[in-house]
Amino acid sequence: MKRFVCLLLALALLPGCQRREDTARQSLFCMDTVMDLQVWGADAQAAAGDLAALLNDLQDQWNACDEESLIGALNQGTAQPDPQQQRLLGRVEELSRRTGGAFDPHLHSVSACWGFPTGDYRVPTREELAEALKEDDWDLGAALKGYAGDRCVELLKGYDVDRAILDLGGNIQTWGEKPDGTPWQIGIRDPRGEGLLGTVSVRGTMAVVTSGDYQRYFEADGKRYHHILDPKTGYPADSGLSAVTVICADGLTADALSTALFVLGLEAGTRLWQESGDFEAVFVLTTGEVFATEGAALSGCDYEVICRED
Ligand code: ADP
Ligand code: MG
Questions:
Q1: Where are the domains of the chain?
Q2: Model pLDDT for residues 143-165, shown as the tens digit of each residue
Q3: Average pLDDT estimate for 220-249
Q4: Could you give the CA distance from residue 273 to residue 295 in angstroms, rounded to a whole number?
């Protein structure tokens, strides 16, 4: 018997016999995009299932195209947000002020004029856009996936999980550290090619969010009309950028800022970064030139570094 126990102990100590870490991977179509959730740890399966349920729930509440949703009811004036929902709306308004209105959570009617929510694309007239700009119905499309990342992180804290990487349709949310101590490597898509432009390294809990003119667009009369709108004109933002990536510990902030920086362009976007201390950014110009703020930890491509003192 003793020999048997010793043999078992010896087997347990062999490297190949160590307990394999539980992992769970789940894909879902949510918020009009494909999401991919990867979770490691004892509770990985349960956590991944509950993350998917949370994401679906947030989609059902905040889908501005669904009149039955909370946001649909808010836009019709037939519902009141609960305290948690009110906090989100308050934070979104604050981000709009912080960006001088470049991030504007009230563009649903303008976006609908272009057919972006439904896919029935068309070029609206100036008069139509002027009318739609007077409306102030909520559209959290530019911030919801980022907020969802924050809510996922909150959920993960309640489980026995070691780490997770959540691809929420181009919004990447990380949580925890890799066992070998190396940072997460997040690829940034080349806005005008098939592959990657480069990679950013991040540690711990971080959101890496990209807004680009290639994510949703249509072409008419040889011109590209994309879905990130300039709140001053109602037309697709034409600031000389094809993509902006924001790296920030807070997902909601990262998402709102990626849209805002896209609207603001390189110069005004750089000024916003210089007067802030909570995010880093990578700007890709329509010319293909790349600029990255000094803390962005970008590799794999040539770029110019943007410094605080500039
Ligand atoms: P994606 O949702 O493709 O990741 P964004 O985060 O930039 O990209 O959000 C774009 C969406 O946000 C649009 O589809 C529209 O619903 C809405 N939107 C467009 N322009 C703005 C803007 N200037 N401010 C806030 N929301 C916007
Ligand atoms: Mg955004």
A1: 21-306
A2: 999 999 999 999 999 999 999 99
A3: 96
A4: 11
Instruction: Measure 211 CA to ligand 2 centroid, in angstroms.
Output: 6
Tell me which residues have their CB closer than 6 angstroms to ligand 1: 103-105, 107, 111, 116, 139, 141-142, 170, 211, 215-216, 227-229, 231, 255, 258-259, 263
Half-sphere exposure of 307 (CA within 13 A, CB side): 2
Q: How far is the CA of 119 from the centre of ligand 2 (A)?
A: 19
Ligand nearest to the CA of 138: 1
Q: Whole-angstrom Cα distance, residue 310 to residue 302?
A: 19
Atom of ligand 1 nearest to the CA of 259: 7
CATH of domain 21-306: 3.10.520.10
pTM to 2 decimal places: 0.93
